[in-house]
Each structure stands twice: as C-alpha cells, then as structure tokens.
Write a structure and sequence with these properties.
Elements lengths: L6 E3 L5 E4 L19 E6 L12 E6 L10 E2 L18 E3 L15 E9 L4 E10 L6 E5 L3 E8 L2 E5 L2 E5 L3 E5 L5 E4 L5 E8 L23 E4 L10 E7 L2 E7 L6 E6 L4 E4 L20 E6 L6 E8 L3 E2 L16 E8 L17 E4 L9 H9 L5 E2 L5 E7 L4 E2 L1 H4 L25
Parallel strand pairs: 9-17
Antiparallel strand pairs: 1-16, 2-19, 3-4, 4-19, 5-18, 6-25, 7-8, 7-28, 8-15, 10-13, 10-15, 11-12, 11-14, 13-20, 16-20, 17-18, 21-22, 22-27, 23-26, 24-25, 24-27
Length: 434
C-alpha cells in the first residue's frame, strides 16, 4: 500500500535501485539490457555542467518514452504559462478555494495565481493552487518548463512517478523536477494545496555558513522513491507543459514501466516536522531566511528565484524584542500560505488569514503585523513561549516581480477585498517626551 512505501534517504545523492533483481546493467547503455529493457537517459542539466551540479539518471524501462502519438493541444482554462496579466503593487490576500462540485483531477484542478518571466528562456517562476476530487487514473503529466514544489494543505497525494511512488501528506512537500512523468491519485477522495513552479534552476538545500554542518533541513531527511513499475498495456494519456501551453499524447503502455534506474536526478519528498529551527536566544527578530528549506538560485550570488521558507512550531525567547515579523519593505516578492493553525503576524478566523488561504506582498510593497498582532506583541509578557505544534505557515519568496492572473482578481480565487484595511487602524504612539 502507499502507506507502506520504502524510500532511499538523502538529498541529491547518486543512487541505484531496481524493482527486480538483476534489472540494473553493469554499464549505462549496454548492447542489450537485462530482461529486454530499453536504456533511456533523463538529463536535468546540460551534459557539460560542472560535475558537482550535473544532474541525470539512467532509466531501464519496458518501452522508451518515444513510443507515443503526435502531440495535440490540451485545453485548460485556469493553468497559465504566460504572464501578461495585472501588474499592481497592491497587497493581496485570498481565502481558500473550494473542492470542485464536479469531478476534477489534480492537473485539471490547477489555478494559476501569479507568475513572472518566461519558460522559453528558463527564467522565472509561477505560483499555482490546486483543488481536486478525482484520481488521474491513466493520465500522466510532465513539465518541460521547470520544477514543481508541491505543498499539500488538505488531503494526501499518492504520487506515481517513473522513479517510483511517494505518498505526500499535509505537513510534507514533494518536488517533481523538470521532465519527470507522474500521476496523482487521492487516497482521501479530495485534496487542496499549493504549487510553486520554477523555470530558472533546480532546488537545492541552502548553504549553512556559520551555522555549521548541521541544521535547517538536514540532508538525511529527504526521501527518494525506490524503483517500482507497472507492466500495463492500455490507453494512456500523457500531458506535457511546454512554454506555458499544454499538449497531450497517447500511448498504449504505462508511462510507469521503469524496472530499474540509477542517477542523481529524481523526485523527492520531505517531512517539514523534521526541520531544525534556528532562532535567537538573546535579542531581536532574525530575518526569515533562517527558515529556508529549499532554494532555487539565480546567477546572482545569494539571490533566489525561489526560496521556500516555513514558519514551524518553535520556541520564542527573545528579550526586549517585538517577536512577530517586523514591518517590512522588501526587494523580494513574498507569497504566503497557511497549511494549518495560525500565523503570528495576522489574525485568524473569519475574515483573517486561515488555512488554505494566501497573500502576496510584492517588491517594495509595505507589509507587517496587523493592529491585533502589534498591540498584543507590544504589551505581552516576554516569557518563553512555544508556538503551537498546530501551526505551520510557509512563504515562496522570489527575486521576481509577479503579475497576477485574471483568476486571482476576478473572484475565481476568493479575494479579501478589505485586506489593506488591516493596517489602517494602527494608532500613533509617538511621544517626544517619552
């Protein structure tokens, strides 16, 4: 069953795995592969990329992926790949989208929120939501435009890939890298969540600098699927995302027929509860970069196409310090989501920041705690406080300036029209004689 799946551990490791003993050949591309398999290489970087950054895997499969029909367009009304939409510095907050009333699978349940750049030049990123209530079944998908970072918020995802199977529950994440074929089924019957798509580069775990060798997301806690295959001869549809558009092809065999593989280019998952939180034990509020799980770098040192940042359960002990996030204008764009519980800088409940909701604070747009959070934290007794195990928020932070899609502003994604008023009630406390 999906709950009993086995994984290999480590981030970016070169691994070998076979579903049947003897399926892995002794060389990459022998004249004849064991068991009558075909050898196929999947390259995630250029052949000539430096060795430490070179990403590829060899797959040994029943039939090569080239055995398929011609591509034809695949219609999708809310998944967008070009970003000529609304550009505004306005602060945005959205309420959760609903599970659809008609059957809709994971791919068809996508709604693009915002994006920047151009996948044809491999530069940029996009943010999507999904809400679905139907298994993908004999439909598979791959993204030629970039990597998907999937953040479930409600309902587990049973993800079947060429490399093996993964079960990903709320509180975990999965990364499906460029070109990897996969399909999503729904063990709980329905699911909702967030997806970050990056065109620029692959995700990596951040450098730790003076933190040392250990901390944040430890390498050992990432999980890679072991080889698994199905030998099915049936009608399958494979959907491709290519330069922002969707295309489909058909084939009469399962896309998931890889009996063995070896390499360092694979999908992976991570349990966010294993994140090793770094925080101040004296004064001041550290920058949120200390909560970075994964980063997709640009060519500018220290500047990310996407940083995936979480705000997990943790102890707050700073003395003489305003503990929630400070008021801020940022050269980066900040998209926030809430997996469960609440977030310390915004009130929860009706009309607030709730699980499944989200917000976007664009480049240089001011943001920070609302009045309730400010007044509460400014007057709180500064004793050690444990932020609840029931709270988990995250942020996609990007150096790109995002344009919102039509769906983000026309009510398809329910918008909090009064969001900007949460700061209007902040009062003057200035007293020159104090």
């Amino acid at each position: 069953t999906m709950s009993d799946l086995q994984y290999l551990s480590g981030f970016g490791n070169y691994v070998s795995t076979e579903a049947l003993p003897g399926a892995l050949p002794k060389t990459n591309n022998p004249q004849k592969c064991p068991m009558g398999l075909y050898a196929e290489q999947l390259s995630g970087t250029a052949f000539t990329a430096p060795r430490h950054a070179n990403k590829f895997s060899w797959l040994y499969r029943i039939l090569p992926t080239a055995v398929q029909s011609k591509f034809t367009p695949y219609e999708h009304k809310t998944l967008k790949g070009s970003f000529e939409g609304m550009a505004s510095p306005q602060q945005y907050r959205w309420q959760p989208i609903e599970i659809p009333s008609e059957p809709r699978d994971w791919l068809d349940g996508f709604i693009t929120v915002a994006g920047a750049g151009d996948p044809s030049t491999k530069s940029g990123a996009a943010i999507h939501l999904y809400a679905c209530n139907k298994d993908m079944g004999n439909k598979a998908f791959y993204n030629a435009d970039g990597d998907f970072l999937i953040v479930p918020q409600q309902g587990s995802l049973a993800i079947k890939t060429e490399f093996g199977r993964m079960n990903v529950a709320p509180g975990e994440i999965a990364v499906i890298q460029r070109g990897m074929r996969f399909s999503v089924n729904l063990p709980d019957g329905s699911a909702k969540g967030y997806v970050c798509e990056v065109f620029t580069s692959h995700f990596k775990i951040p450098d730790l600098g003076p933190i040392g060798a250990n901390g944040l997301a430890n390498t050992r806690d990432f999980q890679v699927p072991v080889a698994w295959f199905e030998d099915l001869q049936d009608e399958f549809v494979v959907v491709s995302k290519f330069i922002g558009n969707l295309f489909q092809t058909t084939q009469k065999h399962s896309p998931f027929d890889v009996v063995a593989w070896h390499g360092n280019y694979s999908p992976y998952k991570y349990d966010l509860s294993k994140f090793v939180v770094i925080n101040t034990v004296s004064i001041d509020h550290p920058d949120p970069s200390i909560f970075t799980v994964l980063t997709a770098p640009t060519n500018e040192a220290g500047t990310a196409a996407i940083d995936f940042v979480i705000f997990p359960p943790r102890w707050m002990v700073a003395e003489n310090t305003f503990r929630p996030p400070y008021y801020h204008r940022n050269c980066m764009s900040e998209y926030m989501g809430l997996i469960k519980g609440s977030y310390d800088a915004k009130k929860g409940g009706k009309g607030g920041f709730v699980p499944g909701g989200s917000s976007l604070h664009s480049c240089m747009t001011p943001h920070g705690p609302d009045k309730t959070a400010f007044e509460g934290a400014s007057n709180a007794e500064l004793k050690p406080v444990k932020y609840s195990d029931g709270d988990l928020a995250f942020m996609f932070e990007s150096s790109y300036l995002f344009k919102t899609t039509t769906a983000a502003v026309d009510g398809t994604i329910p918008m909090d029209q009064d969001y900007s008023t949460c700061w209007q009630s902040l009062q003057r406390h200035f007293d020159a004689s104090a």
